[in-house]
Structure formats: structure tokens, C-alpha cells
Design brief:
Shape: globular
Structural class: alpha/beta
Order of helices and strands: HEHEHEHEHHEHEHEHEHH
Largest sheet: 4 strands, parallel
Radius of gyration: 22 Å
Oligomer: single chain
Helix content: 40-55%
Bound molecules: zinc ion
Strand order of the largest sheet: 2-1-3-4
Strand content: 5-15%
């Protein structure tokens, strides 16, 4: 009699584990999705809704370049049902562990065609990884996330595709707003602290001028700073952009030297806890970026 009960319990537990098609052995049975950094996290959340559990490997407010992993994170990545990451040397530690994961792993960077070469100053990378800052490329990534979730959890495929459709329309609207908002501008040169905006500027007919060769936290070399300031003045640039996750010191020195202002241009590599609590999102931050660009470039 006792043996029968044990067998029944075992069957029930196995059945529960197999439920959902994702083989989620821990957690609440929903497929577990691991996303490498903020934009991929938001894409998985928007597409998965409450049907999946999504974890962002990069801590809120943290910088994703060259992320280090805790042993707990390594375990989670190995056991995840879906791992969404960027290869090509963007986050080598995660890339390595993703290769050992039991679940569906998607290198979203490798799947973007026609990648740009890395800008000077980003020497350790052979391609520019900042593809999410082009809304049309981000939309393609969202579609790929929907395919990955559907593969891991076929029972909810229709919901994942529908959610991706809604989100994609928001991204289309954003893309149109950028195209229209940046169509007629007095200036086209965008001075940024790190070379994150090549895809964005490329899509909308602008040029990126990164403060290349200057480390975000280091004291700027006065000669280099002088050269950049001369360039800024010669091009009639009015604004030097800095980012939310790195110190604005270098951008501020350059702006002072050249006699121009500074403003934030957010590369969306991470949102802080406060940002998330305040309801900020990929689309809302990108709309803030558009407003900052229009102001700096004198767009009609
Ligand atoms: Zn970056």
C-alpha cells in the first residue's frame, strides 16, 4: 500500500515538472527566462507577460559591459528555460555559461545582420553591440524573443505572438517619431561620451562623435581635450552628451573647454530601481532621448 502512495506522489511531481513544456524544475512552474541586460529583460517581460519569470543578469543601475557573474547566477543560467544574451565579446562570462545552459539559448546580437564595426575607443570589441538603440533592430529582436518563448512553451505561443505584436506597434510609432523629429535639424553631429549611438545616428541621418580614447572615469588628457574642444567649436556643436550610468566628468570638462552645454543621452544599458519604479521603459527613455537630440541639434 505504502509503495503505491510513493509511486503516485512521484508521478504527480514528475507531471508538474513537465507542465508548461519548459522543464522548469524550480520556481513556480512558469518558464524561467534569463536576460543579459535591460533591453532584453524588457523585451522578455513584454512578450512573456505573467506567463514567464524573467531575471535580468545585470543588476539594476549596473553597467552591462564585461559583466561578472556570481555562482548563483551561473546556476540559474544553466537551469534556465530560455537564455537571451549578446555574444561577440560584449559579455564574455555570460556568453560562456549560456553555452552550457539546458534551455533555449539565443545570441540576439549574432542574429542581427550587417553589424557595424566597433568605434575607435571600443577596441576590445570587433563589432558595435549597441543594436537595441535602433528601434527597427530592437523590433526584430522582440520578434526573435517571441519565437524563443514559443519554442520553450508552445502552449502559450498565441499569447507570446500577440504580446510581441502590440509591443512592435509601439516600436514602429517610436521609429516614425524619430524619423520625423530628426528630419530637419540645424546640426547633425552628436558628441557622446561612449560610442553607443552609432546605430541610432546611422538610422536617422546623424553622425556620432564619441569622445574616443578617454576613459569615462579617468582625468582627461589636456591636449586631447583641447583637440576635441576645437572640433566641437568648428562644427558649431552646442551640446556634449553624457550618460546616466557613468560619471559626467569628462563630458563636463569638454563642454567647459568648448564653451557649450551638456545634456543626458541614455544608451539604455540599464535602468535604475528608481527609474523602473517611476514607470520608465525602453520607449519612454527613447522618447526622452529624441527630445534631447531635437533640442541639441536645433530640429524643427
Ligand atoms: Zn555600451
Amino acid at each position: 500500500m505504502r509503495r503505491v502512495v510513493v509511486a503516485l506522489v512521484a508521478t504527480f511531481v514528475l507531471g508538474a515538472c513537465g507542465d508548461g513544456g519548459g522543464g522548469a524544475a524550480q520556481g513556480d512552474g512558469r518558464p524561467e527566462v534569463v536576460a543579459a541586460f535591460y533591453p532584453l529583460f524588457e523585451a522578455a517581460q513584454r512578450v512573456g507577460g505573467d506567463r514567464v519569470q524573467v531575471r535580468n543578469v545585470t543588476p539594476a543601475g549596473g553597467e552591462p559591459h564585461d559583466l561578472e557573474l556570481s555562482s548563483r547566477q551561473v546556476d540559474r543560467i544553466e537551469d534556465a528555460d530560455v537564455v537571451l544574451f549578446f555574444g561577440r565579446g560584449f559579455q564574455p562570462a555570460l556568453e560562456k555559461v549560456a553555452g552550457r545552459s539546458k534551455g533555449t539559448t539565443v545570441d540576439l546580437l549574432a542574429e542581427v545582420g550587417d553589424l557595424r564595426a566597433a568605434a575607435p575607443g571600443d577596441d576590445e570589441l570587433d563589432v558595435d553591440p549597441h543594436v537595441w538603440l535602433d528601434p527597427s533592430l530592437f523590433k526584430a529582436m522582440v520578434a526573435r524573443v517571441a519565437t524563443a518563448l514559443s519554442q520553450a512553451d508552445p502552449a502559450n505561443q498565441a499569447a507570446y505572438q500577440a504580446n510581441a505584436g502590440v509591443y512592435s506597434r509601439e516600436l514602429d510609432d517610436l521609429d516614425s517619431a524619430f524619423a520625423q523629429g530628426l528630419a530637419q535639424c540645424a546640426r547633425t553631429s552628436v558628441v557622446t561620451s561612449h560610442a553607443a549611438f552609432g546605430y541610432l545616428t546611422g538610422r536617422y541621418g546623424l553622425t556620432q562623435e564619441p569622445i574616443a580614447g578617454l576613459e569615462p572615469e579617468s582625468e582627461p588628457n589636456p591636449q586631447r581635450l583641447g583637440e576635441l574642444a576645437a572640433k566641437v567649436r568648428a562644427e558649431g556643436t552646442r551640446t556634449v552628451f553624457y550618460e546616466t550610468l557613468v560619471s559626467p566628468k569628462v563630458a563636463e570638462s569638454l563642454a567647459r573647454e568648448a564653451g557649450v552645454g551638456t545634456a543626458v543621452l541614455d544608451p539604455l544599458e540599464g535602468l535604475s530601481e528608481d527609474d523602473i519604479r517611476a514607470g520608465k521603459s525602453y520607449v519612454s527613455v527613447m522618447r526622452d532621448n529624441l527630445a534631447a537630440l531635437r533640442q541639441a541639434l536645433g530640429c524643427r
